[in-house]
Each structure stands twice: as C-alpha cells, then as structure tokens.
Specification:
ligase; 3 domains; 21 helices; about 575 residues; Rossmann fold; 25 strands; EC 6.3.4.3; twelve-stranded mixed β-sheet; Domain 2, N(10)-formyltetrahydrofolate synthetase; ATP-binding; P-loop_NTPase; Formate_THF_ligase_CS; alpha/beta; four-stranded mixed β-sheet; Formyltetrahydrofolate synthetase, domain 3
C-alpha cells in the first residue's frame, strides 16, 4: 500500500515504504558490486569500498551526468531534493539504470526548520531515520577530526605562552609564535547553536588553557567537510589535511595542521568516512549519500568520490547542488567539475509557482507561519514577473555550455494558466520545460520530467568554466558577481581588500578555486531583495583561506557560519515510539 502524501506526513510515508524496501545485498547485486566492495551497516544501509570499485571498473565508460539546481528559493525551500529523488524514480520507470548522489543532511536544519533534505511525499530517500540522524557517522568523524585540530592549536598556544624554549625543545617542539588574535578556525558542532558563535575559552588558571576569544561554526561548514567533498582518494585527503590553515603567526605567516603535526591523526578519523553511503529511493533506485549541505556557507556538493563511483555503475547519475544556480550550480560548475574532471550532460533548474509568486511580488512566505492566502489563488502576473528570476538562472546554466531543463515542481494549488506562463517564458529563454508531480505520484508523476532530461542528455553541449585559475582573485570575484549574480561590481571592506591584494601576490593561493559565501535567499548579498535586482554591488567583508580543500573563500554580506535555531524548531515534534523504537516526526 502506498500512502497518499496529501493525507500523511513524510515520516509516515517513509515508514510504510521501509516495510518493503530492498536490502543492501539486493542493491549490491543490482549494481554489480562484488561481495567485498559492500560494507554493510545493518540490512538497509551500507558503505561502498570506492577504491576497489574504481580500480575494477576503471576502463568502463561513464554514464550520463545530470546536476539538479534551482531558482532562488523561499525560506521554505522549493523541493530540490524531492525533485532529485523524483527524477531518479522517473528515469527508473523509463527502464534506465539510474543512481542518485545526494548530500548527507546536517543535524542543524534537521532539528530546526528546514528538515533533513531526504525529499518528500512519494519521492524520498530511505530509510529516513538513519539518513536524518547521523547515518554511518561521517559528520561525527568530521567533528572529531576538525576539533582535534583545534585541540592541537589551543594546546600549543598554552604551552608556548607558559613554557621556555628549553622546555619546548625537550618535547621536540619548535616555537610557532602563533598570534592568538589571528586564529582562522573555530570549534564545530552539528546544531544551529547561536549562543556558541562567540565565546571565551581558557578561563581559569594556567593549566586551563590559553584565554582567548573563540567560537563555534556548524559542522558542515568545516574545511574537513569540504575536503571530503573534493578528495579523490585517501592519499589526496591525507595531503589536503596537512594544508589546513588554522591560524597565523605574529609575522602573518600561515600556521597549518601540518605545522601542528596533527594532520595524520585528523586523517585517521576520516578513513572510513571516505567511503560513500549506499541507500535507496522510495521506489528502490540506489542512492549514494556522501558529504554535506549548505552551498551558501560551504561547497554544497555531494562528493566527487560518490559521483565517480556512480558514473561507473550507472547509465544515468543524478546529483544535487545546494540552493540555487547562483550558489550551488556555480560551485558545481567552477569547483567540483574542475577538481573532478567530470563534464555534465544536463542541468535541471527546479522552480515552484510558490517561489515565482514570491519573486513576483507576493507576500514572502516565512517558516512557522501560515502561507498567505494569495498563494492558493491564481496570480499569473506575479508568476510572469517572478520568471525573471528563473530566466536569470537558465542563462547561468547556458553560460556553462550545459543544456538546461526546467522542472516545474507541481503543487496542487498551481493553476493551468500559471503553469502555461512558466512554460512559455522558460521555453522562450531556451530551456526544455517539464511539469512534474513526483511529490504526489512518485516516478509515475515524473515521466515527462525524465523524458526531457533524457532528450537533453542526448544533445551535445559546449561545457566551459567561467574563469581559469590564472585569473587574479578579484577578477574572478567580479566575474561571478556580474555574470552569475547580476551585480554592477564589487566593493571590499578594508580588511578584505588587504587580504585580496596579499593573496594575489602568493602563487600558491593563486592556484586555488574560489568558493563564495553568500545568502541563498537572493541573487544579491541582501536576503530581502527578490527577483532580479539591478543597480547594486556585491560587498565582500572578509576572505578566508581553505588551503587544504583548495579554496579561497570570499564572504559577502552578513552571513554567519553558525545558523540560529528558530522559535518553533522541528525537534519539538520529533519523538520515539517506546513500544517499537521507531522515530516519529522527521521530515
């Protein structure tokens, strides 16, 4: 029995489907994995030994590669993960050997207002509870590895400030002269804990550590998570782990995890996490879940390793980039594809009538508040105005030389006239358009969507990057700001300008990619500006260095690496059935 999503919650639908889902051993056989390539975590979740698979299948051609992105979302999200699952199910209904690769959710949004990003309705990734609550421990490993780096840093500060050179030499340590006022890293935790953004550590006596300002970021913003996303293998991860800049010395030189001699131990925490996790859609298509979310404050991509394995095992691979095309797709295009060497065949831009209305002038929807009645009534003029935002993102995909497909993620309140308006304007902009009802009907509701993607994948494209690595940092930022965001130019705070000038003189930093940090709620750096604003400049307030991951990270606008928990968070509705042990209330 398949439950009706208009009458049942996501967790109820997932729980019913889990009673008949495939075991990982069935998935292994369908994928053609050998026995020792599967590393089970119970009967329904497993890791896959990526190194064995890639070595065995190194001469097999790759499948078709599809990226799913979206228009600028409302705070409620527009169903990008749901559409990724729906497309995978639709391709499965068409008889295609298809695999999805998605990101592991963070405990922060899962316990807050956004949910676990498993999809929704009849297009979900299951089993839902392990997916949402830690899975196989990858994020826990990231937290331990990252925080061990902070332990090494703060311990070294304590010993250097409290000890003589002779004492340090007896421990075979050299003085690093770390500047406690110029520390790059913070501690991490995988919740939205605004009270920990800014803290003082080392209170007490000399044995209680060095007293200094510090703070917490959310776990998935960690450079260790970024390294998991882009590492090609264990050797590559080990090399990257030693390049993480944790602080600067009193002369302004970087102090790395390698200098602290903690990089090997940090890598040890990550060995098992390097293998992607195997799960499935609600209809049984294999799904790799690996690396983390948040393209507004991180790279926001599933791992290169998961994509490479899937492309060897499947004829079609559907991956997902975080948030809209200005953020997640731009990083997929200019960072992930460059680092992986993979070339996409198609990119999907997910749109909802709800979000188009918001961009066209409707009252903005807010989490935890009832949706304005205007969203349940026909307003073609708002939809047409909002399509300016959709067309902007279509054009971004076309600038990459990739074939765009617009997925209208259908809601039951959408009207025929509103849908016709989107079709007309998106097709005029050069995109294929498909109406998809995967949320309500699963793969059967995504057949038009699947057909459009198959057609797009069969057409040639002309993939090209927005910039080359020889392009100076400020020129890259300006290209992204103008060509992707639609800004008139870029402004810098004095601190950010000083860093940019210094970085452009460093040949090692010049080789790094550019990973922008910006709000996901607007094309601009102001989350309240909707549609396609004109006459504005992107303001860069800081520039971070993720040398291990291979990124320079310009930070635009007032965005925090530690989100806050809302007044009505999801954890209020999550509980456990004490008779069965089943978790209820996840979404």
């Amino acid at each position: 029995m398949v439950l009706d999503p208009t009458k049942h919650a996501d967790w109820e639908i997932a729980e019913e489907a889990e009673s008949r889902m495939k075991t990982v051993y069935q998935l292994r056989d369908e994928l053609g994995l050998e026995e020792k390539e599967l590393l089970p975590y119970g009967h329904y979740v497993a890791k896959v030994d990526f190194a064995k698979v890639l070595d065995r299948l190194k001469d097999r051609p790759d499948g078709k590669y599809i990226d799913v992105t979206a228009i600028t979302p409302t705070p409620l999200g527009e169903g990008k993960s749901t559409s990724t699952m729906g497309l995978t199910q639709g391709l499965g209904k068409r008889g295609k050997n298809v695999i999805a690769t998605i990101r592991q959710p963070s405990g922060g949004p899962t316990m807050n207002v956004k949910g676990s990003a498993a999809g929704g309705g009849l297009s979900q990734c299951i089993p839902l509870t392990p997916f949402s609550l830690g899975l196989t421990g990858d994020i826990n490993a990231i937290m331990n590895a990252h925080n061990l780096g902070m332990v090494a840093l703060t311990s070294r500060l304590q010993h250097e400030f409290n000890s003589t050179d002779a004492f340090l030499e007896r421990g075979n340590l050299k003085r690093l002269n770390i500047d406690p006022r110029n520390v790059e890293m913070k501690w991490i935790i995988d919740f939205c804990a605004q009270a920990l953004r800014n803290i003082i550590i080392g209170l007490g006596g000399r044995r209680d550590g060095f007293m200094m300002s510090s703070g917490f970021a959310i776990a998935v913003s960690s450079e260790v998570m970024a390294i998991l996303s882009v590492a090609k293998d264990l050797k590559d991860m080990r090399e990257r782990m030693g390049k993480i800049v944790v602080a600067y010395d009193k002369r302004g030189n970087p102090v790395t995890t390698g200098d602290l001699e903690v990089d090997g131990a940090m890598t040890a925490w990550m060995v098992e996490a390097l293998n992607p996790n195997l799960m499935q859609t609600l209809e049984g298509q294999p799904t790799f879940v690996h690396a983390g979310p948040f393209a507004n404050i991180a790279i926001g991509q599933s791992s290169i390793i998961a994509d490479r394995v899937a492309l060897k095992l499947g004829d079609y691979v559907v991956t997902e980039s975080g948030f809209a095309a200005d953020i997640g797709f731009e990083k997929f295009w200019n960072l992930k594809c460059r680092m992986s060497g993979l070339t996409p065949n198609c990119a999907v831009v997910v749109a909802t009538i709800r979000a188009l209305k918001a961009h066209g002038g409707a009252p903005l929807p807010m989490p935890g508040q009832p949706l304005d009645p205007a969203y349940s009534k026909e307003h073609v003029e708002w939809v047409e105005k909002g399509c300016e935002n959709l067309i902007h993102h279509i054009n971004t995909v076309k600038k990459a030389g990739i074939n765009p497909v617009v997925c209208i993620n259908a809601f039951h309140t959408d009207t025929d006239n509103e849908i016709k308006a989107v079709r007309r304007l998106a097709e005029d902009a050069g995109a294929r358009v498909a109406l998809s009802k995967h949320w309500q009907y699963g793969g059967e509701g995504a057949l038009e969507f699947a057909d459009a993607v198959i057609e797009a994948c069969n057409e040639p494209n002309d993939f090209k990057y927005l910039y080359e690595l020889e392009t100076p940092l400020r020129e890259r930022i300006e290209l992204i700001a103008k060509e992707v965001y639609g800004a008139d130019g870029v402004e810098y705070t004095p601190e950010a300008m000083e860093k940019a000038v210094r970085m452009e003189k460093d040949p090692e930093i010049q080789k790094l990619g550019t990973c922008m940090v910006k709000t996901h709620l607007s094309l601009t750096d102001n989350p309240m500006l909707k549609g396609v604003p004109g006459g504005w400049k992107l303001r860069i307030r800081d520039i971070l260095t993720y040398q291990g991951a291979g990124f320079v990270v310009p930070v635009a606008g007032a965005i925090s690496l530690m989100p806050g928990t809302a007044a009505n968070p999801a954890y209020r509705r999550i509980d456990v059935d004490t008779e069965t042990g089943k978790v209820e209330g996840l979404f």
